[in-house]
Amino acid sequence: MTRYSPLALAVLAMLTEAPMHPYRMQQLIKARGKDEVINVSQRNSLYQTIDRLMRGDLIAVRETERDGTFPERTVYEITEAGRDTARLWLREQLAQPAHEFPAFPAALSFLPVLTPEDVCRQLVTRTGALERELARLDAVDEHAQAVQVPRLFLLEGELIRAKLVAELDWVRSVAADLKAGALTWSPAWLEEIAQRFAPADASSYKLNTPTTDKETKT
Length: 218
Fold this sequence. Notes:
Layout: H1 6-17, H2 22-31, H3 43-55, E1 59-65, E2 73-78, H4 80-95, H5 103-108, H6 116-146, H7 155-180, H8 187-196
Antiparallel strand pairs: 1-2
Protein name: DNA-binding PadR family transcriptional regulator
Pfam families: PadR
GO molecular function: DNA binding
């Protein structure tokens, strides 16, 4: 069975509207703002996805067209199996939370590699980036409201914004605790914690600790 990916679902969704060539698919995804949630920056990824869908008999070649001086373009159409698969994928993604591995939580799990001061500086920088992204999304939403885009086509933006607001509030709170010293660590304290929770069969166990900016536990 063909493996799900957001880009594969996007291709099938585009082709449920009408047969089209890859460049047109990429244009529509960007024009509709779906590139906020689907990575179509690399044309090669789109062609690789189309190849996978072809091998799975989810799409088929409709025709090859030539437009003036442009190179020949292959037009694809969705198959009945493709329509069924698109519906199946969409139901699964709506109903079942995916177990993903985003980069930011992974970085948070290794904070002792840095000092509290260093972490605080990075989170303050992240706060500024999140604020700018929130302002950009708000501007996009204002434009959509001005041209009366139906809410049905803006729901993914609402979710992105809600998650962004929640992350921004949380990052601000952690940065504030770091500045106030309510959240801190030191090499000695980390070593103590490592020994306390070391596996019973381990003779030596250490957490990664910063080598500069000595801190004391509050």
